Amino acid sequence: VQLQESGPGLVKPSQTLSLTCSVSGVSITASASYWTWLRQSPGKGLEWMGAIAWSGRPYYSPSLQTRTSISRDTSKNQFTLQLSSVTPEDTAVYYCYVNRDYGYWGQGTQVTVSS
């Protein structure tokens, strides 16, 4: 199983950040799988942002739910994070993850919010 994040490395304040996680080795519709987005800001711990279940149901962090949308494209075996109205505080390394076996992580992608 492999996960790979992709998306712009630089986003301007107030814009929407959009990242895609491409999955290989397992279908994103595989039972009991939660396809997750997390991030780590400089000097802070890992933050769970949300997930989309194998059924397609999304789950969001209460602190981010008003700005976050997670969706999927089963034909491409991908799932996507959108975070709206970004500020410099959203600068972080963003990771995708799935809770299968012992867990699989993407390598992470740096996103910087700056004008």
Main attributes of the structure:
115 residues; 4-stranded antiparallel β-sheet; mainly beta; 51% strand
Structural class: mainly beta
How many beta-strand segments? 11
SSE pattern = EEEEEEEEEEE
The overall pLDDT, averaged over residues, is 97
The portion of residues assigned to helices is under 10%
Written overview of the protein:
The chain is 0% helix and 51% strand. It is an all-beta fold and 115 residues long. It has no helices and 11 strands. The strands form 2 sheets. Strands 2, 4, 5, 6, 9, 10 and 11 form a 7-stranded mixed β-sheet that branches. A 4-stranded antiparallel β-sheet has the order 1-3-8-7, with no helix packed on it. The model has no long low-confidence stretch (mean pLDDT 97). A hairpin with a 5-residue loop joins strand 9 and strand 10.
Please give the structural blueprint:
Elements: E1 2-6, E2 10-11, E3 17-24, E4 34-40, E5 46-53, E6 58-60, E7 68-73, E8 78-83, E9 92-98, E10 104-105, E11 109-113
Brief account:
The protein has strands at 2-6, 10-11, 17-24, 34-40, 46-53, 58-60, 68-73, 78-83, 92-98, 104-105, 109-113. The protein is 0% helix and 51% strand.
